[in-house]
Design brief:
Order of helices and strands of chain B: EEEEEEEEEEEE
Strand content of chain B: over 45%
Largest interface: A-B, 22 and 24 residues
Radius of gyration of chain A: 13 Å
Helix content of chain B: under 10%
Oligomer: heterodimer
Largest sheet of chain A: 7 strands, mixed
Distance between the termini of chain A: 38 Å
Chain lengths: ~110, ~110
Amino acid sequence: SQTIHQWPATLVQPVGSPLSLECTVEGTSNPNLYWYRQAAGRGLQLLFYSVGIGQISSEVPQNLSASRPQDRQFILSSKKLLLSDSGFYLCAWNRDREHSPLHFGNGTRLTVT
Amino acid sequence: AQKITQTQPGMFVQEKEAVTLDCTYDTSDPSYGLFWYKQPSSGEMIFLIYQGSYDQQNATEGRYSLNFQKARKSANLVISASQLGDSAMYFCAMKGTGFQKLVFGTGTRLLVSP
């Protein structure tokens, strides 16, 4: 069966510090990978998605970047965090098949102080 | 572009009763998928049920069923025999033809009381 791992679960970082969130998927190959952000009490906003190694599409221009160095690894980064980067970050994957449901990791709660 | 509307910010139901969470959508794609997710207070998003636009029958998964009315563009989630563990945020989402992002509604918070 497929599993998705996301870490860390919580993170408190000062403004201006770097960020690296990691997500890995097991039990499948060539998944589509996604990073979503959820502000407190709100819906999900798609940040990045990837259909293959080194292929990253950005949905919202901002202070963040993503990379996919390996088939089942997706990394969300920032060189300098802003207060507005605080939120709940969710990694997700699905099969490269129409209408394949997304399966989410447990999320990372990021607080920028 | 796809749009999902969930008009109920909060719903209350007593344990063992059924509850319907509303979802309407808008799309110009001839083929699309509709999804429901549950988000407990711990934060993870749990996939519940899927309905394809060409499916003839309403989807069911255990206590969850999807009341799909294509002409009205609605895809309401019905939870039968509510349990205390059903208390959570519920998100409706849809995806159009080809590789398109999953678009989420703003969610409905369900509270199940004893």
